[in-house]
Amino acid sequence: MTPNMIDEVQLLRAQIAAAAARLIAGDGADYGTAKRKAARQVMGDQQVPAHVLPDNAQIEAEVRVYQSLFHADTQPARLFRLRTLAVEVMEQLAQFNPFLTGAVLGGTAGPHDDIHLQLFADSAKEVEIFLLNREVQIEISESPHFKGPRYEPVETVSFLWRQEGVHAELYELDDLRGAVKARGDKAQRADIAAVRALLHSTNTPTTSYPVHE
User: Fold this and answer.
1) Crossing angle of the two packed helices 56-70 and 31-43, in degrees rounded to 10
2) Are strands 164-172 and 115-121 parallel, antiparallel or unpaired?
3) What distance in Å separates the CA atoms of residue 9 and residue 31, rounded to the nearest whole number?
4) What gap in Å lies between CA 148 and CA 14, rounded to an integer?
5) Beta strands in the chain (DSSP E)
């Protein structure tokens, strides 16, 4: 590509990333949906080449910019609340090797975000029975395996914890070794100790959300 073409592609990526960030932070869209909608907003009905689409890292950076501009007075408190509740849930589920993932771990969680966990147990039924015995109402669905599309989707249990949504992907114990391997510089998941450290390294926000059953 010529320098002018490269500049044009970079501009389109930036525009799509910014539009996707607005959909994620403002409307609660997931990254895949937001990317597709943003591409249509920017480029209309024309076919969008794959190399023009921004990656999730670029979109996440734009989400952080959007939040700093429009949600700076509320987002830190929201994030602190969700991380605090994540620790509570992880403590309750400690026997299933819980890890925190997603926007609550990454720091971009906003008003539309839930808590996302990965659990590792002998069987999914073991986790379901544990929750049901504690009178937690659960919904069951499927999520893509963190190892990629070559692997079967995993069962996911969703429930409310102190009025916040929790989605726990249920993996086999054999998957635990792959989960704890580092993948690049950015943490993909964090155990209870790491999430506690995140809380301790952050000052309690002056604006807080009430915690109630």
Assistant:
1) 80
2) parallel
3) 20
4) 27
5) 99-101, 115-121, 139-143, 154-161, 164-172
Angstrom distance (rounded) from CA 89 to CA 138: 14
How many Å apart are CA 81 and CA 210, to the nearest integer?
8
pTM value is 0.86
CA dihedral (16, 18, 19, 23) positive or negative: positive
Measured CA to CA, the distance from residue 179 to residue 50 in angstroms comes to: 29
C-alpha–C-alpha distance, residues 63 and 17, integer Å: 9
Question: Cα(172)–Cα(174) distance, rounded to whole angstroms?
Answer: 5
pLDDT digits 0-9 by tens, 127-179: 999 999 999 999 999 999 999 999 999 999 999 999 999 999 999 999 998 77
